[in-house]
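Standup notes
- DV: blocked on the single-chain target, sequence here:
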Amino acid sequence: MFSGNIKLKKELSRRVERCARAGGYSSPQEFVEHIVERELAKLEDAQTDENIVKKLKGLGYID
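- DV (later): unblocked, structure below
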């Protein structure tokens, strides 16, 4: 099961911090949570794992 902690590479972390600051978020974590929630909302109506895979492919996340 997922533990809730995610590590980011340094460059990605810097990008997140910059965008969070520019966007007026209270923290990088708040920014990342907002982005993840928005992206998950695009997938949550899928009824099966196959539908999730199709949506991920359609969004360009997987080949």
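- Follow-up: Helices lie at 10-22, 28-41, 49-58.
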